[in-house]
Write a structure and sequence with these properties.
With 647 residues, the protein is α+β, with helices and mostly antiparallel strands. Among the domains are: 186 residues, Tetratricopeptide repeat domain (Serine Threonine Protein Phosphatase 5, Tetratricopeptide repeat, Alpha Horseshoe); 121 residues, no CATH class; 123 residues, no CATH class. Helices cover 48% and strands 9% of the residues. The protein has 29 helices and twelve strands. Strands 1, 2, 3, 4, 5, 6, 7, 8, 9 and 10 form a ten-stranded antiparallel sheet that branches. A two-stranded antiparallel ribbon has the order 11-12.
Length: 647
């Protein structure tokens, strides 16, 4: 390099290099001595930081090896090893709360539930992470403390929506307990967080299958099938045969027989359910011979087809009238058929209007005018008014009518605080309402979850899903129609027209009303407690649940000796209102309690006759089945325990 240039580079100011395009961006070159100086400073700084870090490393306490091993094992899902390592650390230091937490978590994972709860209880503070809420919640569910477990599981999902195990466990728990609306909500949240979660997609399909929403089932399973044409898992929920049958069933519910057959694919000829579904698909296609052949093959596969629910469309009660005119007329005139109305269709209700102060507080007032359109109730507290539209009206009017209220702000349906009672032709407080509402909205009544609304509709209508959408054949049924007890009737009508041997009725065929347990189960779906816990077992609390109290009676317990059994249908017809002439019931009693009666074999009759200290000649019901007051105001129900009256 020329001396002058070198001198310039060594001592002169920075210079600017230009590109061929004469770029204006300068590249500044540091003086060599300056660069060396700065480099030395940087190296010294790094060395200083390293020295400080080294000092801190040796001064700061190190994580004990056993606790570290437990933490790593837990992260790798080696639960037993994590438990052992955490326990080893606690022997070294019983006050190590981090090790205690790992021990509690690992114990929960290996389902040492009592130990896990004890370990959690020894922590100074209650853990609030989604992981711990999930683990404790699942323990409580396994221990039968479902309500407490559900609360913690819900908090876990709210804390961390991406915690797959918490969302999965909660949705499965809700599904098993027939909380379909809540289960569906949780499952959809889980899918939103993890769209590839096939287990939840299948669960969501099963939920919709349980609530008779075939379109939603098909939507969920079609997506699953596209993702899993040949799944390898052995789980029943994921076996392709199970998925295919679930798809076929719901295509048949929509009267899509070709798609049902395509969904079944090439199934084993020993698979009874697939054969049965194929027979129903052929029936819907009008192929009588093939329908009968598949049905016979299904019978040969297992010996019987049983009372499976028909994979069939609903047709509504009006469709039954053509062949069952007399029964249809009786049923449509019964109170069963009048158990439900939409809020804008109150025709035929004998109720009256009212305007009165609350019985528990003069500051609370309510009023209702049955002539207004649309129907609504007005509630007032200290001059503040809230209004609620009548969404649904529950009850035939024989005992009472309770509206379901929809607040103007759309915050969810509420059971009206006020009920109309037929015996007094007046309005009074609905059972289960608080003495003093906690808020203006609570003036309307107790808020009801979507699952509770569906449960109510399940006993007041034929098909709750169609009622909620206000769309479908059963919407025209004012209450309980034929298909509520017999199952959807579309296949039955086609079977009659095709004149095939099997009439395709899901349950309770003519002249074959099912076994006694089946009858009791069917009636108990609405005339039992429906799984609810009663606040008390007093007579007033249980008297309205006739299907339950009947099973307490000796007549029911000893009914296996009767030729025709003893159940609800022994005395009542489901197609018309209960008889009010006591002599008709006396005849039923005497038929069994006289040694010469025809209701049972004589040995049982003789024993039954001796049970009654009075000659069984009449007035049986007035003594052994009196009407007693219910917890529901102004109402009395017949005691079905059939017992010696209390003194």
């Amino acid at each position: 390099m020329p001396r002058q240039m070198a001198a310039r580079v060594s001592h002169g100011p920075p210079f600017r290099l230009r590109s061929s395009t004469d770029s204006p961006s300068p590249i500044r070159c540091l003086h060599p001595e300056s660069a060396m100086k700065r480099s030395s400073i940087a190296l010294a700084f790094v060395a200083g930081i390293a020295a400080i870090a080294t000092v801190f490393y040796f001064l700061m306490p190190q994580e004990p090896e056993s606790r570290k091993a437990a933490r790593i094992a837990y992260g790798e899902k080696q639960w037993a090893r994590a438990f052992n390592e955490a326990s080893r650390r606690l022997k070294e230091d019983p006050k190590d709360t981090d090790a205690r937490l790992l021990q509690a978590r690992a114990a929960a994972r290996i389902e040492r539930d009592a130990f896990a709860l004890e370990a959690y209880g020894q922590l100074p503070n209650r853990p609030e992470s989604a992981e711990d809420l999930y683990l404790v919640g699942s323990i409580l569910v396994r221990m039968g403390r479902g309500a407490e477990g559900e609360e913690l599981l819900t908090r876990a999902v709210d804390t961390d929506p991406a915690h797959d195990e918490a969302a999965g466990f909660l949705s499965q728990f809700l599904f098993r307990n027939r909380r379909f609306e809540a289960a569906g909500t949780t499952a959809r949240k889980r899918l939103a967080a993890n769209p590839a979660d096939d287990a939840t997609r299948v669960l969501l399909a099963r939920i919709h299958d349980s609530t008779f929403e075939p379109e939603e089932v098909i939507r969920s399973l079609d997506d699953w099938m596209a993702r899993n044409p040949h799944p390898e898992t052995s789980s029943a929920e994921f076996r392709i045969e199970t998925i295919r049958k679930l798809l076929a069933r719901n295509h048949l519910r929509l009267h899509q027989p070709e798609r049902a057959i395509a969904s079944l694919g090439n199934f084993e000829r020993t698979d009874r359910e697939s054969l049965w579904l194929a027979s129903r698909a052929k029936l819907q296609l009008g192929k009588k011979t093939e329908a009968v052949e598949f049905l016979e093959a299904a019978r040969q596969a297992t010996g019987e087809t049983g009372n499976l629910e028909e994979p069939s469309p609903y047709v509504g009660a009006a469709a039954c009238r053509e062949c069952h005119a007399e029964i249809s007329e009786d049923q449509q005139a019964s109170r069963h058929s009048m158990t439900f109305r939409f809020g804008d269709q109150p025709d035929g209700l004998p109720w009256n209007g009212f305007s009165k102060a609350d019985f528990h507080s003069e500051k609370l007032k309510a009023s209702f005018d049955p002539r207004q359109t649309p129907l609504s109730l007005t509630f007032e507290s200290d001059g503040e008014e809230v209004h609620g539209l009548m969404k649904f009206i529950m009850g035939s009017g024989r005992h009472a009518v309770t509206p379901v209220i929809e607040p103007e702000d759309g915050t969810g349906l509420r059971e009206s605080r006020w009920t109309w009672y037929a015996p007094v032709n007046d309005w009074d407080i609905t059972p289960g309402q608080p003495r003093v509402p906690a808020s203006p909205l609570d003036l309307m009544g107790v808020a009801q979850s979507p699952d509770m609304i569906r449960l109510c509709l399940g006993c007041h209508t034929t098909n709750p899903s169609e009622i909620l959408k206000r769309e479908g054949r059963t919407v025209a049924d004012r209450g309980i129609g034929c298909e509520r007890c017999h199952g959807p009737g579309g296949n039955h009508i086609e079977a009659i027209r095709a004149e095939i041997p099997d009439k395709a009725i899901g349950r309770f065929r003519r002249n074959s009303m099912g076994t006694r347990p089946q009858v009791m189960q069917a009636c108990g779906e609405c005339h039992g407690t429906m799984g609810r816990d009663l606040a008390t077992n007093s007579d007033a609390a249980v008297v309205r649940f006739q299907a339950m109290t009947l099973t307490f009676s000796e007549c029911f317990k000893q009914g296996q000796g009767l030729r025709n059994g003893f159940d609800c249908l022994t005395c009542h017809s489901p197609h018309h209102d209960a008889e009010t002439d006591a002599r008709l019931y006396d005849t039923k009693c005497i038929d069994c309690h006289k040694a010469t009666g025809t209701g049972a074999v004589n040995t049982v009759n003789e024993a039954n006759a001796r049970l009654c200290k009075v000659e069984p000649a009449g007035n049986c019901v007035s003594c052994h089945m009196p009407k007693i007051p219910s917890v529901q105001p102004h109402t009395r129900f017949t005691d079905h325990q059939i017992r010696i009256p209390k003194k």
